[in-house]
Structure prediction request, 134 residues.
Amino acid sequence: MARPTYQGVRPTTPFAKMRVQYIDGIRAKGFALNSVIGTDEAQLSLSGLGKNLLGIAIFAADGITDQITISFKVNNDVVLEKINASFLQTSENNPRQYFDLYRPLSGQDTILLEFTSGAALAFEVILYYTQGNS
Prediction:
């Protein structure tokens, strides 16, 4: 007996394919940080299911990130060293959603963000990642 078809049901989209699309979807995790005058560091943690780090973005409430210098390490690999945070900030001049930093993750990663600031500022760091292997 043939399986009946119902309007709105797409038999060509198997559940396994939808699951892969969900797992490979981009995820974002934000961290609210406060800089002090001088140098400080923050350890950032992602879900243990994170497999690929895609990038980083920096946002400041007042838009002033040119006073912050960033160094970023993933598992003791220096990815960014002494980069002005305004370079990583999304704006009209920089329309990218995030700064690309493709790195494989193991799920038990050490991610350190070191920042040096000339003023006390509040800012946010957002890490973009996927849980899948692709």
In short: The helical segments are 15-23. The chain is about 5% helix and 45% strand. Residues 76 and 110 are 7 Å apart (CA to CA).
